[in-house]
Amino acid sequence: MESPPSVAVVVLDWNGGEETLACLDAVFASEAVRPRVILVDNASRESVIPQARDRYPTIDVVRNDMNLGYAGGNNVGLRIAREAGAMHVLVLNNDAELRPDALRELVAVAQSDDRIAAVGARILRHDDPARLWMAWGELTYRQSLVRLVGEGALDGPDYVVRRDVPWVSGCALLLTRAGLEQVGLFDEEYFAYHEEVDWCARARELGLRVVYAPAASVTHRGEGSSGGGRYVSRKQYLAARNMVRFVRRHGSLAQRLQFAAFLVATLPLQLLRRSFTGEQDGVFLKMLGVRDALLGRPIPRGDLGLD
């Protein structure tokens, strides 16, 4: 009997179309590593499952009955990977493309220390691979909660050293089996945005390591499911809502107060600035996200176009 695969890749699709197929092409072109590939369709209007099956007959496919978000959709794939015996699972955005040696490098870093729970890749812009989409993330507890280190910067020596970091992007996030067993799956209350920040924080609180591995690189188009990079989009609501959830869960009293102070001080200024460009509705979406998180209200799925 064939032994269970040691590496799995979970690709979550929601109306990704050709981008998702390009993502799968790059996964199957990975050097040295032959992963089990799990395509989870998050109730897309036009699923790419038929094309994916035709192109790659060995692929595992799941079609969710409804959009479960990034967290819930990827958890479907993570459960399948764990049940199949995978020792490492790469969660890969459908608008990202692995470089041929990226998966091999991520797995090698994960295997270098039993305390490593997550390994993140160096993420380059698909339209300009000489520039970073981001390297790793830090926590600021200011109005945006996080900082994307290297965002938009020219790729260079500042971003090529492997290091332990507060969090790495869910765009290309390798999770170890030991990490999943101790930390658990993504928190589905996040739905989308900051769920990987929360997962990494939970891992570090357990004494596990989160590692940035720059020798593994991917290219990323970015922002497809959130509104194509537009400011007035569902991202503003979801990110604001989830910042509040994160701060409540992980922040010290001082950090909570700092976050609240920055939020209260900057939202009126953002509203004023965005009103000059006609984008003030994006700020109102942020305010609604904060309000709903504080009051425990459900996500208005229909209003945000999530169904």
How much of the polypeptide forms β-strand, as a percent range? 15-25%
Globular, elongated, flat, extended or rod-shaped: what is the shape? globular
Task: Identify low-pLDDT runs.
Answer: none
Q: Kindly provide the name of the CATH class of the largest domain.
A: Alpha Beta
State the order of secondary-structure elements, H for helix, E for strand: EHEHEHEEHEEEEEEHHEHHHH
Q: Based on helices, strands and strand pairing, what is the structural class?
A: alpha/beta
Provide the gyration radius in Å.
19 Å
* Domains (count): 2
Q: Would you count the extended β strands for me?
A: 12
Average pLDDT metric: 94
Structural notes for this entry:
With 307 residues, the chain is α/β, with parallel strands linked by helices. The protein has two domains: 7-220, Spore Coat Polysaccharide Biosynthesis Protein SpsA, Chain A (Alpha-Beta Complex); 234-304, no CATH class. 39% of the residues lie in helices and 21% in strands. The protein has ten helices and twelve strands. It has helices at residues 18-28, 49-55, 69-83, 102-110, 177-183, 195-205, 234-250, 253-275, 280-295, 301-304; strands spanning 7-13, 36-41, 60-63, 88-93, 96-98, 116-125, 132-134, 137-139, 146-148, 163-164, 172-176, 209-220. The strands form two sheets. Strands 1, 2, 3, 4, 5, 6, 7, 10, 11 and 12 form a ten-stranded mixed sheet that branches. It has a two-stranded antiparallel sheet with strand order 8-9. Strand 2, helix 2 (49-55) and strand 3 form a beta-alpha-beta unit. The radius of gyration is 19 Å and the shape is globular. The relative contact order is 0.13. The mean pLDDT is 94.
